[in-house]
Amino acid sequence: MPSRRKxxxxxxINQIEPILExxxxxxxxxSEPNKEALLEVFAVQKKENTCVDDLKVKVAKxxxxxxxxxxxxxGGEENKIQKEMRESIGKxxxxxxxxxxxxxxxxxxxxxxxxxxxxxxxxxxxxxxxLFLRNQRRWDSKPLEEEVVVNWWKxxxxxxxxxxxxxxxxxxxxxxxxxxxxxxxxxxxxxxEECQRAEKLGITLYNFHPGSSVGKCTTEECIARCAExxxxxxxxxxxxxxxxxxxxxxxxxxxxxxxxxxxxIDKVKNKDRIGVCIDTCHxxxxxxxxxxxxxxxxxxxxxxEIVGFEYLKAIHLNDSxxxxxxxxxxxxxxxxxxxxxETFSHFMNDTRLDGIPMILETPEGMYPxxxxxxxxxxxx
Length: 380
Ligand SMILES: [Zn+2]
Ligand SMILES: [Zn+2]
Known about the structure:
With about 375 residues, this protein is α/β, with parallel strands linked by helices. About 40% of the residues lie in helices and about 10% in strands.
């Protein structure tokens, strides 16, 4: 096995503090939140936050917000509802963090502009978040407008949200390991464009699915192509770390085995620019048991030996509707699926996961409640 240089952990775990409001002069108002408006937000979220297996729906909703010329620009500001949520629900979530060093967050909607994802994440008390950087239904996209970039940086300045805790999710159209030259080229162009966007926004991580052989080539060939795709993007960008996600092993997809992720890492030229994301639902469906402390320890030991914790850059916390080894990617709310709360207590109490963005991709807009529940499971 070629030697792998360790890449640096993004955050100094001793410096982790809940993201609180930037200091303002004068008193902070403690007005009662507008309950009707909040209920409305939750109703919208319930509709928007479909299970990730229902990707087409989610993607369609989510990209509604990617700015187009037809849309009236909001101008990079927090709206009234976001402010009320931040001061009520968001505050409750942050209060529940206590001494936890876990950075919980959600997949935030960018409806109304990319910077709106920052405000939406903060409204829910997130300490990390994921978002789509562009229209997920299309291969082509216009270059990032200057106004979008300006609004993003304005929001970052205002919220002081740490950019290393933002983990954009790549388009689901892409297949970085495709046997088909046309698909492969389209994927590489799209992935490069998304990573260039990330860099313009100061984002340092980029999460994506490793792809599928579609039964037209061997797993080894698919892995080799995926690694070449990563090299292609890395050679044309400055610093974004390419974060490959663990998959459920459905059909011909790669990434369902830790060994496959290791093989991708081994083939990639620049080991400083490659990382992995553990998705709890995916690894369980792929056959890695994590329900009891013993099986969790065993699975994480395997991960450490085969992949290495130095490559772990993000976690997706999802319960699973489907059984162990089912190879089905079906997300469920925390504690409501086959994994149950106990599984998540293992993750929440594992100090190796301190300072790593842990993002929920669960259905039905229960994000704040789920984050509070998770923080309660942390015994630190
Ligand atoms: Zn995931
Ligand atoms: Zn999934």
